[in-house]
Design brief:
- The structure is a single chain.
- This protein has about 160 residues and is of the alpha+beta class.
- The protein has two domains: about 50 residues, no CATH class; about 80 residues, Winged helix-like DNA-binding domain superfamily/Winged helix DNA-binding domain (Arc Repressor Mutant, subunit A, Orthogonal Bundle), CATH 1.10.10.
- It has five helices and five strands; from the N terminus they run βββααβααβα.
- It has a three-stranded antiparallel β-sheet. It has a two-stranded parallel sheet with strand order 4-5.
- A hairpin with a 2-residue loop joins strand 1 and strand 2.
Length: about 160
């Protein structure tokens, strides 16, 4: 897998996690393969972002408020906003979320897969009607393990 270098690569309980920055804002966050080399945050703003992520992992019932660059199509932003309304410890199926947004489940899945800010926009809280479903366009491997860990960490 060819992954562009991240400004920060963290070793979190669910695996490696990369953060790409533009100045003091996050341009993208991504789950990375387990063998990705670590990169510590160097700037104060980057260290503050990492501290917020660690605090959120310990108390996931609180929203993860991070400085995010605006991205996505209007439809994607609508889906991503809906994801932020799903409380920690709860899930919705792609079909349920699609019905609430008056769209197709596949379109919701595509928007979830295109989410540039996992954790801050909790796409892991959307599952298939018959199981956990995919995650970041994957159906197995380290991405699904990360989704399972995040859901278990948020469970009441």
């Amino acid at each position: 897998m060819n992954v562009p270098p991240a400004d920060i690569v963290l070793d979190l309980p669910f695996g490696r996690f990369g953060i790409h920055l533009i100045g003091t804002q996050i341009r993208e966050m991504q789950f990375l393969p387990p063998d990705t080399p670590l990169r510590a945050p160097r700037e104060d703003a980057a260290q503050a972002i990492v501290a917020k992520i660690h605090a959120w992992l310990g108390a996931p019932s609180h929203p993860l408020q991070l400085p995010l660059c605006s991205r996505g199509t209007p439809f994607q932003r609508r889906v991503w906003h809906a994801l932020t309304t799903i409380p920690a410890g709860q899930v919705k199926s792609y079909g349920t979320l699609a019905a609430e947004l008056d769209t197709a489940a596949r379109a919701v899945g595509q928007a979830c897969g295109a989410n540039p800010f996992p954790l801050a926009i909790p796409c892991h809280r959307v599952v298939a009607a018959n199981g956990i479903g995919g995650f970041a366009h994957a159906s197995d491997g380290y991405l699904i393990l990360a989704k399972r860990w995040l859901l278990a960490n948020e469970a009441p």
